[in-house]
Design a protein that fits this description.
The complex is a heterotrimer of chains A (312), B (442) and C (275). Helix content of chain A is 69%, strand content 1%. With 312 residues, chain A is an all-alpha fold. Chain A folds into two domains: 2-42; 67-311, Orthogonal Bundle (MetI-like fold). Chain A has a two-stranded antiparallel sheet. Chain B is built from 19 helices and 14 strands. Chain B has helices at residues 2-21, 32-37, 69-78, 91-104, 118-123, 144-149, 173-180, 185-191, 195-207, 219-223, 241-256, 267-271, 285-295, 328-339, 342-352, 359-366, 379-387, 399-414, 420-434, and strands spanning 57-63, 82-88, 110-114, 159-160, 166-167, 169-172, 211-213, 232-233, 236-237, 278-281, 303-306, 312-313, 317-321, 439-440. In chain C, 71% of the residues lie in helices and 0% in strands. The radius of gyration of chain C is 23 Å and the shape is globular. Chain C has two domains: 2-52; 65-236, Orthogonal Bundle (MetI-like fold). The model of chain C is unreliable at 1-5 and 267-275 (pLDDT under 50). Classes of the chains: A mainly alpha (312), B alpha/beta (442), C mainly alpha (275). Chains in contact: A-B, A-C, B-C. Chains A and C meet through helix 1, helix 3, helix 4, helix 5 and helix 7 of A and helix 1, helix 4, helix 5, helix 6 and helix 8 of C.
Chain lengths: 312, 442, 275
């Protein structure tokens, strides 16, 4: 950067340059919209269009107006799948945030040797595909002679060997657990990345003022990384509502036993690709989308409008 | 930092260019040469003598299993200049990929259809009528049900298969001798000739510490043929009375511990082949070919086949030619090679112990030596006997979903989660949810 | 105020960390160990020690698919994709974070909303799009969307808001630095830990992407690793040994990349935002 001559310090920094500067923002964000318009928009619009049609994937589609939407309003299986999805998400998200916050607190405030090693270890489960994970846990748990059951029998746990996949509660809990297993490390790493933006001097000031570690964590660190936490909450919700791979591979594609782990995405997938009701499948997609958008929008506004010491 | 950034961007661009470079515009070469060589592509009993090496071009095949890949080498020995590219698409995503491609107008020259959805594919216009290639001359030599499934409701034959999958009971001879006193297939079949008798034998086995079945779910293969009609006739869903009987049998098996309590295709199901306490599998030909035969190491020679209470067929894969293909004639050559050519089919059958769709091949192989895993029993001889008794085919386009929904309902019932009536009601609700246009027959 | 602060004893912390580490690592060990056993061994018992079937599994795997080709294909897609998500994600996030223009909130809403539609059906429309653009045998449909990665933008906007004060930008502006210069030389280096974190995540997501490559790509030689791993599952015979070996081979590069990018996150812990 060339240091301009002090005499040449421009005095003309009026509104015009403010406007021009702000227009740069449009330039910066332009790439997203260009690419989105080419690759992202068409598939979304065609799905919306499909939701108003009846199509079996092979023969030509034809329009049926809003019939699919009236159908979904009375669809008990849809409501069941929605409840399953929410329940599985909560069973995963609550422990996930709990552990992640705990770990971040521990890493930030205690002297731990090998922080990086632990962080790498915890991130590992996020590296393999959900399908492979499903396969793995199937192998570990399915059947009376599965490794886990052998372990339980050896330890003389009552009720062993357990038929995990015949119990609604256990299968649902297992899906939540696998999701938790895959994502808690990621959540921890993200929060850690967020905390790198916090000025260390803040902590020192707080300590000098007599704040304890937990207080510092709750009152200073967390509010300062609010945008990161908002990001995590919203993406977790979106991901949770769209959950598909794990329950698919852990159950028999139908969400059994008794549709306990049939998520909305699984239901729409079955309706489309197995029952050849692509139109109705698109409708389920759109309704799920509206639910996600509505809830996220609401949550986003709520979380950002709470003014802490940080104007967002 | 600037330098690294610049290098990274250059690398990214290089990669993108490399990515673009790997996209030659592949067009399947129109089979002009082939069409010139084949004088008349109509249903003539005698084919114009054509030198196979003059036929050239390339065809694409999508298959949900690997069997078709096994024919390529032999095919190329006869037609060295026709390139066959077989892509194995995992069965779970097969229809997704296929329907997406068809809706875009670009599909492979040949594609398969699994038994779960073959009836659906047959009714669409996407498999071409095979009579234009002279398929009629072969029809007598194909097992009837195989042909029927590949024929649509208007009588047009659109798909063929290289395999037939009749079924019986595959049992352990040593256990049969120990508990039943004999291992002779006819005698054992007599003892298992009805559901009630099977339960009696199951009790006897249980007393001797043997599990009669690997899993009750296998028996469903048989029960689906034990019906008066398919799931849906004239848009009406009907549940055959025999299925209700089956549900009771399944519950009895589970309650009394007559099976190994595993799921089909699970690790334990495979492992039970070699176990000391599993008596039988109720599976068709592919059960022997893919499960028993490869897994039977210490139990080789101890297996046998006998007839089940109801002779049945289950499963199978069909192949057809895409109606919009530019290479139909070449595709037909490959199709013919895999499913109608006696030599190639016989070579395949003997190599892989596959029971095939051509009667003459099965009859010829019945005269050859038996299978060591089966203690010398000849599986072709056995299955030929079963085929003679197969009733009409009962497959419908709704089978994929309805079979699974029914299995689900039975599972709920045997595990005690639902009563029988609740389970049946659940099945009906699921069926209507999947296919709202159906009604329930009374 | 709480006098009795919540003290976690060092021991219980250590136990927790070790327990979580085992929980994370054991399934991976199972994958690696199983990849050296034959299918029958995997089914019949739980193996704790490596077996001797690595070469057999490798041969089976290679006979069914060309795994190294898939490996190279995956790299060719994933590396450019990751770089694009990181660089453009930061740029777009910066535009939303530090500038105020008309329709900003509406445009940002579009960014967020683009993540919310379930992806199962959009593949059909996406395929038709690629067909019309003649890109069904190209990797471009998998690389270029990296420019418009909403998750990255969402995350980095927050990071920028947390760590880059307005003064950090005003000062260079007054000195005559160009907007792009400010972005490239000040903002980007400052948020590197965040960018690196997102790059890891996007690398993994792109590497493991399955449905897209399966449906869009028409030629076998172009298939990526997840597609090939799935193909090893024949219709009836699942060759578990070969499949685990393929999974193991697929996981190793991701672990390498993670180890590499970890360094940038570590550096960020100390650098902070002081300038």
């Amino acid at each position: 950067m060339i240091q301009p001559d002090a005499r040449q310090l421009p005095r003309k920094k009026p509104r015009r340059s403010t406007l021009a500067k702000d227009r740069y923002g449009l330039l910066f964000i332009a790439p997203f919209f260009v690419v989105f318009l080419i690759f992202g928009l068409y598939p979304i619009i065609s799905t919306f269009q499909l939701s108003l049609q009846k199509w079996d994937g092979m023969m030509p589609a034809f329009s049926i107006g809003l019939k699919n939407y009236t159908r979904i309003l009375g669809d008990q299986v849809f409501y069941l799948s929605l409840w399953n999805t929410i329940r599985i998400w909560l069973g995963n998200a609550i422990p996930q945030f709990g552990i992640a916050l705990l770990l971040v607190a521990v890493f930030t405030f205690s002297k731990i040797h090998g922080k990086n090693f632990y962080r790498a270890m915890f991130y590992l489960p996020n590296l393999i595909t959900a399908t492979s994970v499903g396969l793995l846990f199937n192998l570990l748990l399915d059947g009376d002679n599965s490794p886990i059951n052998q372990l339980l029998t050896a330890l003389n746990i009552s009720g062993a060997p357990i038929s995990f996949f015949q119990s609604k509660v256990l299968t649902s809990g297992l899906v939540s657990f696998v999701q938790w297993w895959m994502w808690f490390g990621y959540t921890t790493v993200i929060i850690l990345a967020g905390t790198t933006t916090v000025d260390k001097s803040m902590y020192e000031a707080a300590m000098v003022d007599g704040a304890s570690k937990p207080q510092t964590f709750w009152r200073i660190t967390l509010p300062l990384i609010k945008p990161t936490l908002v990001y995590l909450a919203i993406t977790s919700f979106i991901g949770g509502m769209q959950l598909f791979d794990v329950p698919l591979t852990l159950s028999n594609n139908l969400g059994d036993p008794g549709k306990a782990v049939l998520t909305v995405s699984m239901y729409l997938y079955n309706q489309g690709f197995k029952n050849f009701n692509y139109g109705y499948s698109a409708t389920i997609s759109c309704v799920l989308f509206l639910l996600i958008a509505g809830m996220s929008g609401f949550a986003y506004k709520a979380m950002r409008s709470k003014d802490g010491m940080y104007k967002l | 930092m600037k330098k690294t950034l610049a290098m990274i961007l250059v690398f990214a661009m290089a990669c993108t260019m490399f990515a673009c470079a790997t996209t030659p515009a592949t067009e399947t070469t129109p089979a002009d040469a082939a069409q010139a060589a084949i004088a008349e592509p109509t249903a003539e009993a005698t084919q114009a003598p054509v030198d196979p090496t003059t036929l050239s071009g390339s065809i694409t095949v999508w298959s949900s299993g690997e069997e078709l890949t096994r024919f390529v080498e032999g095919f190329n020995a006869v037609y060295p200049n026709i390139k066959v590219e077989v892509t194995v698409v995992p069965n779970g995503e097969f229809l997704t990929k296929l329907s997406t491609a068809i809706s875009g107008g670009e599909a492979p020259d040949l594609f398969t259809g699994e038994s779960d959805y073959v009836k659906y594919l047959v009714e669409t216009p996407y498999w071409t009528d095979l009579s234009q290639f002279g398929v009629d001359q072969y029809k007598d030599n194909i097992w009837e049900y195989v042909l029927k499934i590949g024929t649509d409701s208007k009588g047009v034959t659109k798909a063929l298969s290289w395999q037939a999958s009749p079924g019986g009971i595959i049992y352990r001879r040593d256990i049969a001798k120990a508990v039943l006193g004999t291992d002779d297939p006819a005698a054992v079949a007599e003892m298992l000739s009805s559901n009630a008798k099977m339960m009696e034998v199951a009790a006897k086995m249980s007393a001797a510490g043997i599990k009669m079945f690997a899993t009750w779910q296998d028996i469903m293969n048989m029960e689906f043929t034990n019906r008066a009609g398919g799931w849906v006739t004239d848009g009406k869903l009907s549940i055959d009375a025999n299925l209700s009987v089956y549900m009771d049998m399944a519950k009895t098996i589970v309650d009394n511990g007559y099976d190994k309590n595993c799921d089909p295709w699970s690790g334990e199901w495979y492992a039970a082949v070699e176990s000391a306490d599993c008596f039988s599998y109720i599976l068709p030909t592919w059960g022997y070919q893919f499960l028993i035969k490869p897994s039977a190491v210490t139990t080789s020679g101890q297996w046998g086949m006998c007839e089940a209470p109801v002779p049945y067929v289950k499963g199978g894969t069909w192949v057809g030619i895409y109606d919009g293909s530019q290479n139909k004639d070449l595709a037909w050559l490959f199709l013919q090679y895999c499913t109608l050519n006696e030599e190639s089919v016989k070579a395949y059958a003997s190599q892989y112990s596959e029971y095939v769709a051509l009667k003459s091949v099965d009859q010829a192989l019945a005269k050859e030596a038996g299978d060591p895993v089966l203690g010398g029993q000849n599986l072709y001889e056995f299955y030929n006997g079963v085929m003679a008794k197969i009733p009409a085919d009962l497959m419908t386009q709704y089978d994929g979903t309805l079979n699974n929904a029914f299995l689900s309902a039975v599972k709920s019932y045997v595990s005690g989660a639902m009563t029988k009536d609740e389970a049946i009601a659940q099945f009906k609700a699921d069926a209507l949810n999947a296919y709202p246009e159906l009604t329930i027959a009374e | 105020m709480k006098h009795h602060s919540f003290h976690l004893s060092a021991l219980s912390i250590r136990l927790l960390l070790i327990f979580l580490t085992l929980l994370c690592a054991v399934p991976f060990l199972v994958v690696f160990i199983n990849s050296s056993h034959s299918s029958l061994e995997i089914i019949q018992k739980f193996n704790l020690l490596p077996g001797d079937s690595v070469t057999d599994n490798y041969k089976t795997m290679q006979s069914l698919v060309d795994i190294w080709r898939g490996f190279v294909n995956s790299i060719v897609i994933t590396v450019p994709y990751t770089i694009l998500t990181g660089y453009f994600g930061a740029m777009i996030a910066y535009g939303f974070a530090k500038f105020n223009f008309r329709f900003k909130n509406v445009l940002y809403a579009i960014v967020l909303v683009s993540m919310m539609l379930p992806s199962q059906l959009t593949i059909i429309g996406f395929y038709r799009l690629c067909l019309n653009l003649h890109m069904t045998n190209s990797y471009l449909p998998f690389i270029i969307p990296g420019i418009a990665n909403a998750t990255t933008v969402f995350f980095l906007r927050g990071i920028i808001e947390q760590s880059i004060s307005d003064s950090m930008i005003e000062a260079p502006r007054i000195e005559g630095c160009s907007e792009f210069g400010i972005f490239n030389r000040i903002v980007l280096p400052c948020i590197m830990p965040g960018v690196a974190t997102m790059c890891i995540f996007n690398f993994v997501a792109s590497w493991n992407a399955y449905m897209g490559p399966l449906i869009i790509l028409q030629r076998k030689e172009l298939y990526t690793m997840p597609v090939m791993i799935s193909m090893i599952k024949g219709l009836y015979v699942t060759n578990y040994g070969a499949m685990y070996l393929a999974i193991a081979i697929s996981v190793i590069p991701i672990m390498v990349v993670f180890a590499f990018f970890s360094r940038y996150i570590i550096d960020g812990l100390t650098t902070g935002s002081e300038k």
